[in-house]
Amino acid sequence: MNPEAFKNLNASQLEAVKHIDGAMLILAGAGSGKTKTLTTRLAYLIDEVGIPAGATLTLTFTNKAASEMRERAFKLIENNTNHPPLLCTFHRFGLLFLKFHIHHLGRENNFIVIDSDDKKKILKTFDKSLPVNTIESQISWMKNALISVEDAKSSAKDRHQRQIAQIYGDYVAFLEEKNMVDFDDLLALSYKILDANPPLAQEISNRYQYIMVDEYQDTNYLQYQLLQKLCTTHQNLCVVGDDDQSIYGWRGADISNILEFKDNFKDVKIIKLEENYRSSTQILNVANHLISHNTKRLGKELQSIKGDGKEITLYYSNDETEESNKISNKIKNLLQNGTNPNEIAILFRLNALSRSIEEGLNRAKIPYKLIGAMRFYERAEIKDILSYLRFIINPNDDFSLSRIINKPKRGIGKTTQEKIFQTAQALGISAYEAFKSDQLGSILSAKNHQTLGEFFATIHDLQDYLAISPLKFLEEFITSIDLIASVDNSNESIDRVSNIEEFYGMFRDYFIQSPMNSLQDFLNDLSLSTDADTSSDGVISCMSVHSAKGLEFKIVFITGFEEGFFPLIRDQSDIEEERRLGYVAFTRAKDELYISYVRSRFYKGKRTELEKSRFLQEAKLLTNKKETSGGLDFKNKDFKKGDLVTHKIFGTGRIEGIEGSGQNAKLTINFGGLQRDILASFVQKTDG
Question: Which of 293, 364, 554, 579 is the most buried (most CB within 10 A)?
């Protein structure tokens, strides 16, 4: 291990790196160098202590984070053997585990991982009376709470719960029959196997003697239970997290996992990383002030290594249009002065607030990317290709066949499709098997029979090319399944063709870099991709605070700091989690932070008068902070007739009339006989 690696560590980081045996909680504040600490500790265990690399397991939440950590760790590790350390996401670990052990459930390891879009389409086939999003979230919650179908049915207390439990059972049975797994199954089935096989749990625990977990505050009940199984034979679990950044309660993250870590494991060592290398003192001060109002926290205070920077700027506007114009004008000025657009982000608590921001950026002709929009792999044209690839792997996959049987159009209409699949289902076999055994002859016209036969023959040919090489297969696929030619001539056609070509290029790159991988490996890797893995080069980033978690920008704008929006006030709202969201939002900024609030917003069909967020007061942002509307600093919000004011161009004048209130009030001012109408934010009171 390179000894220089230790020179860049502070005392707390070094202490964490050199801790070897036993449970440890590294309480790492935002920007405190947690990734450096984790990767250095991994290198220390392997190169200095002599732990076999294959005996370590490091888990995180996104592919992007895993990739960055892997790259940084491998640069530090000198004892790089043929068995490198396993550093991946929780769900990739589950995927790898199931590849080797799903046979314990009586299933084959050639399963396909489906995404949320596939999941919704399957669920719609069981029940159309309930919103599919409701069904999906309920089933996901039950899987992550380790509630089996049997438990769900036995504990159902009313008709609605019995209906959900029945759909849950039908859905699980469908996945098992088609040998599919969804995202939640990657961990739920892994836990199920380990729980039912104590000797296997001991074997896996002995294999991974040293386990590290990043972003531990984001773990849910299932992930906690899985970690307990992985620690069956030891307590060498090092978790890194920040209780003040636990913001995913709505999707199952359980803050008690980190708050009670010291009680759940033996002789826990706790180390706090409080030195922040990202943000200025001013930014950290407001973050510390805000989060100090929470009671459910272990307690720490970030200290800036960078020192003082720019004061935080408050924008107060009359409405969302004025707000978006101010932000856009400021960004335009920043860009004109050489700021890289990649270094600027606009954050909001609710996605609905993005509309006015987008309109303002469009008016100012500022390029931006809305993070969290439809993922590339969920676009219709990409789903078509993925369905083809799945069907080529498994011709008995009726779910994929139903999507592509008439794409591109080959004259097999909706009624004929329904007859094909209904007949196959009645026979208890796949549509492909029904065709092969000549069971569809009575329902197919001669033309459709020939068309379907030619289609299946093409699939067979593509399977043969795939056996030669994935790259040869792609050439033939593009030629024989001409999806580009089938794109309709719509306003979106250029984007759709570009997306298809982008996918083909990515396919080539994947198999050039990983020639030994299979097509199934490719599909499973795609299924693990997330929004956080996308980039936004050359444009402003606009995103929710949740999407911004783990990111950092030189300049950050936060909109919607009003009661009801930030904090969000709903029946299920948790004010402490709202504060943690504010803390996360503040600490995304490295150098400059702009916080915006308005007098009123048009939301859900009506204009609503709003109060400024309580967080402004709690973060001490209303004390000696700069509040502006784009002109002079606004320090005197209330004016009255007769006040003397100063304007930077017209000099001193006296107010003769006032229309409106606040900084957007229109003041009629007499400047030595010259009468002008001036916005209140462009003048200041003066003594006289």
Answer: 579
